[in-house]
Design a protein that fits this description.
This protein is of the alpha/beta class. Among the domains are: 94 residues, no CATH class; 101 residues, no CATH class. It is built from ten helices and twelve strands. The strands form four sheets. Strands 7-2-1-8-9-12 form a six-stranded parallel β-sheet, with helices on both faces. The longest helix is centred in the middle third of the chain and has 17 residues.
Length: 341
């Protein structure tokens, strides 16, 4: 007998998906227990087919139109629409998703991709969305702000060498130029928190399925960008000394799942680099990966930058490697390679 998708609980209000509000934990917990009983939803420990939902940076800073790095996509409302579909997907497939793993982009003011870190020849900081190339650094257009050196642990005579090494590493690895981003996902701030609608869905799932979400913190290293949850953009300094590590524990954990579904923000950056790192480190996992294409959007800043084509190109590469491009509105049972018991 084929499985029937679950209904979306009455408490979910899609019109509030792009807003900030407090999750009513106790009420949701009681309702989740009743929901599990009503629909005979078993604890995740009973799952014969183990399915993981990896949610990349579904935080206010990227998903709320009023926040710093709202991922609008070309539609202008990308992340909000993505999260409406994502919430419904979680609720409809509550009985199939064994565990939810949310990644959390986590920053402080003094980091290599924030304005305060660099100065130009006139001692002015770069504006948000400034791209810092190898050539810029070689010409001396940008240098590390001497006021941050003690905080980041670099000596003055080593600073420019590190910045040149860093931008060369990005170029040689085929990654984007060092990008100066607006201050975002600030640790302790509202922007760092999960979107309430998504947080509520994760909490509801946790109670209904006795499944603890595995939050993955990334991005706190001052000396490197960290788009992918599996590792930073640059891992070693000019002398080969390690400045950051790979997330090998998470890599090994995902290998144990029968299927890993990936969604979140932004398709062109943290989602793309997370998937790429996963593919580079664990090529055999490709056949287990399902990309929710209608629950992720690229970075688009009208008149400044548009990463739509780069994101689409990356997803084609992932599909060619064996990953499946799917949609949240499709039945999971219809996805090739998944056998729901």
């Amino acid at each position: 007998m084929s499985r029937s998708e679950l209904p979306v609980p009455y408490h979910f209000n899609e019109e509030k998906t792009g807003q900030i509000w407090k999750v009513a934990y106790q009420q949701r917990a009681e309702e989740a227990r009743d929901w599990a009983y009503k629909y005979n939803i078993k604890p995740a420990s009973k799952d014969k087919v183990k399915i993981c939902l990896l949610l990349v940076d579904v935080q206010n800073t990227f998903c709320n139109p009023e926040f710093e790095l709202f991922v609008a996509g070309r539609s202008g409302n990308g992340a909000v629409e993505d999260n409406k579909r994502l919430c419904k997907f979680i609720y409809r497939n509550l009985d199939l998703i064994s565990e939810i793993i949310p990644t959390m982009d986590t920053h402080q003011a003094i980091q290599i991709f924030h304005s305060i870190f660099l100065l130009n020849e006139e001692s002015k900081q770069p504006a948000p969305y400034t791209l810092i190339s190898v050539e810029d650094v070689e010409k001396g257009i940008w240098r590390i702000n001497p006021e941050v050196l003690e905080i980041i642990g670099l000596k003055k005579e080593k600073a420019q060498g590190y910045l040149l090494h860093y931008t060369k590493e990005l170029k040689d690895s085929g990654k984007y130029n060092l990008t100066i981003w607006p201050y975002h996902a600030m640790l302790g701030g509202i922007g760092h928190a999960l979107v309430p609608a998504i947080e509520e869905g994760i909490f509801f799932h946790s109670i209904a399925r006795y499944s603890q979400p595995d939050f993955q913190i990334k991005g706190r290293n001052t000396l490197t960008e960290h788009y992918s949850v599996f590792g930073p953009e640059v891992r070693r300094d000019i002398n080969g000394k390690q400045i950051a590590e790979k997330n090998t524990e998470l890599l090994e954990k995902l290998m144990k799942y029968d299927a890993v579904i990936i969604a979140g923000q932004a398709k062109s950056h943290c989602v793309a680099w997370t998937i790429d790192d996963l593919l580079q480190e664990k090529k055999d996992i490709a056949k287990k990966i399902y990309l929710l294409e209608d629950a992720t959007s690229p970075v688009v800043i009208p008149g400044a930058i548009d990463f739509t084509e780069a994101a689409d190109k990356a997803f084609k590469i992932f599909a060619h490697a064996g990953m499946k491009i799917v949609r949240s509105t499709e039945s999971v049972e219809s996805w090739k390679g998944i056998k729901v018991l």
